[in-house]
Specification:
The structure is a homodimer. Chain A is an alpha/beta fold. In chain A, β6 and β7 form a beta hairpin. Chain A is built from 16 helices and eight strands. Chain A has a six-stranded parallel sheet with strand order 1-8-5-4-2-3, with helices on both faces. β1 of chain A pairs antiparallel with β1 of chain B, so a sheet runs across the interface.
């Protein structure tokens, strides 16, 4: 096992009606002048934003607001948020929404405490040294940003999607009410599930041997998703299934399932170019890329894929030919994604095979030369080609 | 799923040689005047205490020390520690040892900030409102106190063992170096393993349905212990196995495997009277009590025990007679405990069947009327009797 630090100081406040405690939580965590950051209409229409504001007012807290976060959040809105923080002496950012909204909030939180251009953090020209405290009220189970220190933002003028991370960006608290996710369309629910599972797989495929505890914790989250996702697609109001998925989404990405060993993250990188270029949902892009990546790298460690097949997908181990078991596991993963309504090839995603050279060119290929398998530009092109041909 | 809060703000610093960072960690977490609290000779003899002191000196930190913590830590030493804290204006408690040492440190931390008798917290006459910050350097994988807010202390004059808990008692940091545990005798290693598994089982046997994520996380820790414990008993210097067990011990008790549902904890309560009366190792007492408790309560939810049997112990499900599967799971657990060298009945533990009435009398029976199954004094007596008769 590799040496590691694990630090997840976020206070998770989970369950029905917990958003009514938001004001008290902001106060407890030191906030007095709050920027409420949110996305489009659903938080407004559902009355959630009003409930949150009421709870801030009940604690006598000042607040201002900035809505309009889009999926694949843009740098432009973050610049605006930073200006508001400076103008109104904001000391706490409250993010009401999903991963895009929280990631945007993290950009604002870091940028407001930095004299230069906040994009420096995402362009890897600077590391976060200070940030405003953040709290979240989560509305989608997917990105895991509510418990992580990571943030992914798209630069509007180039459509490049880049990430940064710091323990300083971990939310002080996150309110998780599964009931808030019951109104999500099935497609968004499925995209969220793919994102959650990808966060685990990026940590599952490692070159560090003998970290059984982390393997088993990964499999715990995956098995939960395999059970609960079809239930919630069939029955969107199933609170218990929603609750399991929501907490699984947090556990999948605060790094408890990743400690003590190398991780991969190349599928995320390869996908980011898709959602950057086509503005598709990140989870949908992952559904197309992740199994394609698995097929491409499988021979690097067949037994690891066989383990996934047996332990996660319930395959029978073929002891005479483990490769067949490994392939069966990948096949079952792709069929699972298809069955919950996700695209499984480039065409279904709305992407074009002829754009592959451009997608490869946009990659920061230096980022793909570590992880489970080092990938060359030609390797990445082949993964996109596998993704173009995929079917169930 | 029940509403819950999950808050585990401890910074875990895991791996080889990490104890050399202790001074820097104390400083980072705000300490300047440190009480080093430790047990007997092993931390001194191994040179660990010297390394820790050196790291404090390197940061220019004041420290004083209080050794002599015994297994089943006593209130008497805690009174002494509280006096030292007041006399020397201590602002940080550094606990170098196992669960007993950390639990004792928590008593001191809470008592130093309280005008009354610290035992009030354990007698449930008061709740902790303030506590000195604590850091730990762990030397035994067992109690999980390095990541929990709980503490168990024995009152010397009555030999009663009582517990308290508060998020304020969660350590600010915990240094976990698995190599420090390689010198532990096999018996202590096995006792630690039983304690770790018991912490999971106390959370696994719940009356709240459909919390798949927590079930699976529980099973992840248990499966790890089933794999790694025999390896480490056979080969004490196996760093990888030690590392898996050490991290499993922390994950087992910071409550990530317990959220969202009712828990039990009656086996712990029933065991506490044994280690209180006979001063035996807590883990050894649990090895005797836990399977006996399982046999006694099994019919409350046969399918739950069958799930344990299949998912944790690899039993084949008997679909015609699930009770046989459930029984087989309990049998395999007891045989596992026996195989790693633990006692499995009262006699092997050094306890006497004729003391059962006294053991029952010492219970705070009101504490046993909740959990998976409510227990009457006669039920508790029967569990002790099952434990007296047990064999493999």
């Amino acid at each position: 096992m590799d040496n590691f630090n694990f630090y997840s100081p976020t206070e998770f406040v989970f369950g029905r009606d917990r958003e009514n405690e938001t004001g008290a939580l902001v106060k407890k965590h030191g906030g007095s002048r709050v920027l409420i950051h949110y996305g489009g209409g659903s938080a407004v229409k559902s009355g959630l934003l009003d409930r949150v504001k009421k709870s801030l007012e009940a604690e006598g807290l000042f607040y201002t607001e900035l809505g309009g976060v889009k999926p694949n959040p843009r740098d432009t809105l973050i610049y605006e948020g930073i200006e508001i923080c400076r103008r109104d002496n904001i000391d706490f950012i409250l993010s009401v929404g999903g991963g895009s909204c929280i990631d945007s909030s993290k950009g604002i939180a870091a940028g407001a405490c930095y004299d230069g251009d906040f994009w420096d953090f995402y362009a890897k020209k600077a590391t976060v040294q200070a940030a405003l405290p953040i709290g979240t009220v989560l509305t989608i189970a997917a990105a895991g940003s509510e418990g992580s220190g990571g943030s992914v933002v798209t630069q509007e003028k180039t459509m490049l999607k880049r990430d940064t991370g710091s323990d300083l960006l971990r939310p002080r608290f996150s309110v998780l009410n599964p009931a808030l996710t019951c109104t999500l369309p099935a497609y968004q629910t499925a995209c969220g599930a793919a994102d959650i599972m990808a966060h685990v797989f990026e940590r599952y495929f490692t070159n560090t041997p003998e970290v059984e505890i982390t393997d088993r914790l990964c499999e715990a989250v995956l098995l939960t998703m395999v059970k609960e996702t079809p239930r919630v697609i069939a029955d969107p109001d199933n609170y218990e299934a929603r609750a399991n998925i929501m907490w699984a989404g947090t556990v999948a990405h605060n790094d408890i399932v990743g400690v003590g060993r190398s991780q991969d993250w190349n599928s995320h990188g390869i996908e980011h170019e898709l959602s950057g270029l086509y503005d598709c949902a990140h989870g949908a892009g992952l559904a197309v890329i992740m199994p394609a990546w698995m097929e491409f790298v499988m021979n690097h460690n067949v037994m690891r894929f066989a383990q996934m097949a047996v332990r996660v997908w319930g395959c029978q181990m073929n002891f005479e030919n483990p490769e067949l078991t490994a392939k069966e596991g990948i096949f079952r993963f792709r069929r699972f994604l298809h069955d919950i309504g996700l695209p499984i090839n480039l065409a279904e995603l709305g992407a074009k095979e002829e754009d592959i050279p451009k997608l490869v060119e946009n990659q920061n290929v230096a980022d793909r030369t570590w992880g489970f398998v080092r990938l060359s530009p030609e390797d990445i092109a082949e993964i996109y080609r596998i993704a173009a041909r995929a079917e169930v």
